[in-house]
Amino acid sequence: MQRKESAVVDETRSVDSAESEDVTNSEELEENKVFTADEIKKLQLEAKTYRKEKAALKKEFEETKSKLEALEAEKLSDVEKKEKKIADLEKTLAETQAAIKQSEATSLITKALVGKPVIDPDTAMLLVSKELEGQEITAESVREAAEKVLKEKPYLLSQEGQKPGVGNYARKDNETKKDANQVLADFLRRGK
To answer: Cα separation of 161 and 77, whole Å?
Structure first.
């Protein structure tokens, strides 16, 4: 029986020394004391309850920590969602404002070109738009840019009083077309 008790005492001592590295002087004195089986069972039961309590506290700490992290992540994700929504709305607003500005510019250019004998209105509008780049678009600036473009590029204007076939490439041969027999007859006459 002595051997069993001493073996149990040795196990308890090794477990105690492994669990706690800081051994106080009073505990050193108790180590030299021989414990009975009932005392050992009592100490083992006490150590077991401490380990269970420690595990329960550790589990509760981990759960609380994960809940806190989840709440922070949820709060952060709400803020991030709102920031993203604000950025998207600002982008949409900028695009809408740019479209409105372009629409107003197109309208002013069209008004400036109305009543002028422009041959190709689309080209004239593009050239006036190009002329207005970097400028503030007002009715006066659009009118001046349109006049400048039409003055520099007179080929955009139709020439009143000209015949439809006359232009940069006027017809050189105003004769009516001849059939093959007439062409052959003319050729033979010239050869004589």
So the answer is: 73
pLDDT in tens, 99-156: 998 899 889 888 888 888 888 888 888 898 888 888 888 889 888 988 898 888 888 8
Among 182, 176, 158, 180, smallest CA distance to 168 is for 158
91 phi, psi to nearest 5 deg:
-65, -45
Give dist(CA 29, CA 25) in Å, integer.
7
What is the reported pTM? Answer: 0.42
User: Residue 122 burial by CB count (10 A; 0-12/13-18/19+): exposed, middle or buried?
Assistant: exposed
Residues 6+ apart with CB under 8 A from 156: 118, 119, 120, 123, 124, 127, 149, 150
The owner of tokens 């500005």 is 101
Asked if residues 156 and 113 have their Cβ atoms less than 8 Å apart, the reply is no
